[in-house]
Design a protein that fits this description.
The chain is α+β, with helices and mostly antiparallel strands. It is 27% helix and 29% strand. Helix 1 (2-17) crosses helix 2.
Length: 399
């Protein structure tokens, strides 16, 4: 397991953040993941030849800073020429089960954040300044949730090494190839210039219009200075914002939905005028009731994402319990707020009112991802000039 940790640290530094000499790296971590943060910092300092600063937090609040110097710290260090950031997500102190008081939890922003349902803050200055990455480190509580009561942490590492490609000798090359594939797909989607998408499968026939001033996002990120980085892994999906009043039809969740620490099973939805007007589930309907009651925007679709079926992340588990993995399982629909990363960068927006008046983006305090991809899914694009183009068949892209 120690070797896997080292390979994972290399993946984060070399493939995701891509630190280089002169970078001033900051790592945010909770106390439980401090050992992995120190491993990252020690390896990174030898690359950057700069002190790495570990910011230790408790429930997100800074408690102290630990500087990690390069081994050869007595030599003349080069002047910092850049910066980078890593945030390690604590999976040990989060809620892995339904709250005792569901109504109270759905009204508590701290609880919503712990369940990963709180929408990202609306930051209207969307210029990316430095490479950054969000990473998860396997721990016993996550292993217990995902695999079983008696499962050790080693078993979770074994599962995730396939998803992160740590079992490949040249894992950086694997992810470079995948990022190039997503870049190619993104360019193809942009050239199609779709106005509308239709999703068709067993139990699903859903149509959505794409939001004004929205573009496809996902995959490799590029800074103004040309530096590239991957903010999260795995790398499977491309997503775009949806017109908040457009969704119509019906859909059935193809996999469990993670909501308030529980699983919503075999969920069905009816949509009209962009809004969920009816829903049911074999298990967990009360969780959907609580979510849709949080605010008006929660009942609308904020974005859709396309991702292939039959990938490592779609095969290894039905539900992982962490958003960065669950959202890459398959094609999905997101209830609640759209991501501002989909907003065209040349559109000047100063506040929430301006966003609402200038675009058709959906806004909400919360998000919830509903997987709809399966081996039967077909996705069609309707272009602005009236053509219909098939994008996916049997749940995979038609590259």
């Amino acid at each position: 397991m120690d070797e896997l940790r080292k390979r994972y640290a290399r993946l984060v530094l070399e493939t995701m953040v891509r630190v280089q000499q002169g970078d001033a790296l900051s790592i945010n971590t909770e106390s439980h993941t401090l050992p992995f943060a120190k491993l990252l910092a020690g390896m990174a300092s030898e690359i950057t030849q700069q002190p790495v600063h570990i910011v230790v937090t408790e429930h997100g609040k800074p408690q102290g800073v630990i500087p990690v110097e390069p081994v050869e710290h007595d030599i003349l260090q080069p002047t910092p020429t850049g910066a980078a950031m890593i945030r390690i997500v604590d999976t040990e102190h989060r809620n892995w089960s339904e709250p005792d008081d569901l109504a109270a939890a759905s009204a508590d922003f701290v609880a919503l954040q712990e369940y990963e349902h709180l929408a990202d803050p609306l930051i209207f200055d969307r210029r990316i300044a430095v490479p950054w990455a969000v990473v998860h480190v396997p721990g016993p509580n996550w292993a217990k949730y995902l695999i079983g009561d008696e499962t050790r942490e080693d078993a979770l590492w074994d599962m995730l090494q396939d998803i992160w490609k740590l079992d490949h000798e040249q894992f950086s090359t694997v992810w470079e190839s995948q990022s190039q594939l997503l870049h190619y797909r993104k360019r193809q989607l942009e050239q199609i210039d779709a106005k509308q998408l239709r999703f068709v499968s067993a139990g699903t026939d859903l149509t959505v219009d794409l939001a004004q001033h929205s573009h496809w996002e996902g995959g490799l990120q590029v800074l103004p200075n040309g530096r590239t980085f991957i903010p999260s892994l795995p790398l499977e999906e491309l997503f775009i914002a949806v017109d908040r009043s457009s969704a119509s039809g019906r859909m059935t969740a193809s996999r469990p939905i993670g909501l308030f620490g529980e699983q919503v099973l075999v969920a069905e939805f009816e949509l009209c005028g962009g809004k969920v007007v009816a829903w049911d589930a074999e298990h967990g309907k009360k969780l959907l009731d609580a979510f849709f009651d949080i605010d008006e925007g929660a009942k609308h679709i904020g974005e859709v994402a396309l991702a292939d079926e039959n990938t490592a992340v779609s095969r290894s588990a039905e539900l992982y319990g962490v958003s960065l993995l669950d959202r890459n399982r398959t094609t999905r629909v997101r209830f609640g707020s759209a991501s501002l990363s989909c907003l065209d960068p040349d559109l000047a927006i100063e506040d929430e009112t301006g966003l609402h008046e200038s675009t058709t983006f959906n806004l909400s305090n919360v998000v919830c991802d509903c997987p709809i991809g399966d081996g039967e899914l077909e996705v069609f694009a309707r272009t602005h000039d009236g053509r219909t183009i098939q994008l996916m068949e049997h749940g995979v892209f038609l590259d």
